[in-house]
């Protein structure tokens, strides 16, 4: 097995990742950790592209020009690495990964204690880790519901007051109608048949005297 078969992530790549981690670039601390993990994972993946595989699959080319075959292997690794990194960068840009990681890091930093205690770390239980965040959201939702309830109660009180006022007006109007009806009934009682007949008789008697 050749030295190329035992290739490990280059010291240059690792040192560059350490430099990025130390500088904490625009991606933020968690974004830098992510790039570090991607870089090491990619280097590990590319290390499996061994020259022995090329020798096994292209024995004639290896016999004729082993140096050319090694160059093909290096070109393949370089092109593959470039394409993978480009796809990962596009995926991170589409999903806005780095801004999200930066926001998460800011939240963790903001809630870290100042008494020398350990900063908050995920417990692995989503329900427990999101309890505080969900609590604040539910409190806001509760306040909204309380406001809606208060508004509905106030509107119901206004409607009840308006209904009571209308009921009083209706009762007053009914009282007036009843009084008017009573007056009309009294008039009809005065002008009944006997009264009209008596009035006619009196009128005729007056004409007879003349």
UniProtKB/TrEMBL annotation:
Q: Does the keyword Cell membrane apply?
A: no
GO BP annotations listed = cell division; chromosome segregation
Which spans of this chain does the record mark as coiled coil?
Answer: 163-194
Look up keyword RNA-binding and say if it applies.
no
Give the matching InterPro entries.
Answer: PMF1/Nnf1
Keywords assigned by UniProt? Cell cycle, Cell division, Centromere, Chromosome, Coiled coil, Kinetochore, Mitosis, Nucleus
Where is it predominantly found?
Answer: nucleus
Q: Where in the cell is it found?
A: Chromosome, Centromere, Kinetochore; Nucleus
**One cellular component term from this protein's GO annotations in UniProt:** MIS12/MIND type complex
Which PANTHER family does the record match to this protein? POLYAMINE-MODULATED FACTOR 1
Name the UniProt record assigns to this protein: Uncharacterized protein
Ranked from the top, the taxonomy reads: Eukaryota, Metazoa, Ecdysozoa, Arthropoda, Chelicerata
């Amino acid at each position: 097995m050749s030295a190329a078969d035992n290739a490990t992530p280059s010291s240059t790549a690792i040192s560059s990742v350490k430099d990025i981690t130390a500088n904490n670039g625009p991606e933020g601390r968690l974004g830098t950790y992510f790039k570090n993990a991607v870089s090491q994972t990619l280097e590990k993946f590319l290390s499996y592209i061994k020259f022995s595989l090329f020798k096994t699959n292209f024995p004639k080319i290896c016999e004729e020009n082993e140096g050319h075959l090694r160059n093909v292997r290096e070109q393949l690794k370089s092109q593959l690495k470039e394409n993978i990194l480009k796809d990962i960068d596009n995926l991170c840009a589409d999903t806005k990964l780095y801004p999200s990681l930066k926001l998460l890091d800011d939240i963790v930093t903001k809630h870290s204690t100042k008494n020398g205690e350990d900063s908050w770390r995920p417990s692995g239980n989503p329900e427990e880790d999101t309890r505080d965040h969900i609590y604040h959201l539910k409190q806001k939702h509760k306040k909204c519901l309380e406001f809606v309830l208060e508004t509905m109660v106030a509107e119901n009180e206004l409607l009840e007051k308006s209904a009571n006022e209308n009921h009083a007006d209706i009762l007053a109007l009914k009282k007036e109608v009843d009084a008017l009806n009573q007056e009309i009934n009294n008039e009809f009682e005065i002008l009944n048949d006997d009264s009209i007949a008596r009035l006619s008789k009196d009128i005729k008697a007056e004409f007879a005297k003349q």
